[in-house]
Write a structure and sequence with these properties.
The chain is an alpha+beta fold and 330 residues long. 33% of the residues lie in helices and 33% in strands. Helix 3 packs antiparallel against helix 4.
């Protein structure tokens, strides 16, 4: 079998640029400026975005193959050598190669400190940063509001939006009319809007998905089962199970659209996690006893520092500020 008898087709200029970007991101020398330049490059056209996605897929596959090769067998020895190869050194080189490839893959999938977009971020057609909300019109009959730290990728049929992948975060959907079903895929499940005048929200964070129906009805399906949600009902599912529908206050559920966070007997640890979605930096709660205490209230996302001050005073926790807008509660 001839493995290298035929040359692979040459890459076109756009593909070469895309592969160059991937190499840059996996070099260990990428900067925030590189990340911003990449986002600008990808946004020039759909062809740019597609070329980069293809380059990502190639690198991801090559990375995995490289690790397998390095783990299973060393490279063939050269025919001419000044001395016999050292088995120990060869093993070290093989291990180093595997480590380097694996590290590069991890760096792209999970960028350190969020320095550049992750694989999931890069495949998103629309996204929001920390504390940002954004309205997107997908078609005449579908409007989407993205909450903070949210990424969505479009699904299309014959050039028309037929649904989205909620890669992560939280989004609200207003479906005015239904020429066909509109689908939101999140986690291992999906939500279908099949009637006119449907409003619903989907949140994909922390390994579980929460679906809230605000008007009309939606069908929720996952590996754990399926059910129909009516207005002012909510359900949570994960990789194993589908929860039961529970009644919710619709106004409180969608308060985030107006920049309001609503907590009702919510453990302080969960409150801090939610604040971290809206606030640059990081709040770290290190007191396990205080973490379980409940908190209730309505707070503006525009005054989170005031909220943190109130938490510190109400729960008698000590606060320490670190560089990078990091706040320790002990």
């Amino acid at each position: 079998m001839r493995l290298f008898g035929n040359r692979a087709p040459a890459l076109d200029p756009l593909e070469r640029e895309a592969h160059a970007w991937v190499r840059r991101l996996t070099s260990g020398k990428a900067t925030q400026a590189d990340a911003q330049a990449l986002q600008h490059w990808r946004s020039q056209s759909e062809a740019h975005a597609v070329a980069f996605r293809h380059a990502q897929e190639v690198w991801h596959k090559v990375g995995k193959a490289g690790v397998l090769v390095a783990d299973r067998r060393p490279l063939p020895a050269r025919r001419v050598a000044s001395r016999a190869p050292n088995p120990q050194r060869r093993a070290m080189l093989g291990g180093a190669f595997a480590t380097a490839v694996a590290a590069a893959g991890v760096a792209v999938v999970h960028p350190p400190l969020g320095l550049w977009p992750s694989w999931e971020d890069m495949r998103a057609d629309y996204h929001t940063g920390t504390g940002e909300r954004r309205d997107v019109v997908l078609s005449d009959n579908v409007r989407v509001t993205l909450n903070t730290q949210t990424r969505i990728a479009l699904r299309s049929d014959a050039g028309t939006a037929s649904g989205i992948d909620l890669v992560g975060g939280e989004a609200a959907f207003d479906v005015a009319r239904t020429d066909r079903s509109f689908m939101v895929v999140a986690g291992n499940g999906r939500t279908l809007a099949q009637n006119a005048g449907v409003q619903f929200e989907v949140r994909n964070t922390g390994g579980s998905v929460c679906v809230t129906c605000l008007s009309g009805q939606v069908r929720v399906e996952s590996a754990g089962g399926s059910l129909m949600l009516q207005a002012n009902q909510q359900v949570v599912y994960d990789d194993q199970r589908m929860g039961v529908a529970v009644a919710v206050d619709g106004a409180s559920a969608q308060a985030w659209r107006n920049g309001i966070l609503v907590f009702r007997q919510t453990p302080l640890s969960e409150v801090v996690d939610e604040i971290n979605r809206y606030r640059p930096g990081r709040v770290i709660l290190m007191n396990d006893e205080k973490a379980r205490l409940p908190l209730s209230g309505r707070f503006s996302v525009d005054n989170l520092e005031l909220v943190l001050t109130q938490i510190r005073q109400a729960f008698h926790v000590k606060a320490r500020t670190l560089p990078g807008n990091i706040l320790l509660f002990t």
